[in-house]
Amino acid sequence: MMRQCESDNIERLEVVSKWLLLKLAAKANGVRDIYLRNALAKNIALLRSIESLFNQQQYNQGYILFRSLLDRFVYLCYLHDNNLFKEFEEWTFIKVYEHRNNAKADERFRRLINDPLFKSDPSESRRYTELKKKNIEWHKPDPKNVLSGRGLDFLYKFGYDYASMHTHPMGSDGDFEFHQLTGLEPNPHKDFSYSELSVNSILIATLGMRESMNAMSFKFRGICYSFLDEICKEINNEENDCKNTFYKIVMLISNQDHLFT
Question: DSSP secondary-structure letter at 156?
Answer without folding.
Answer: I
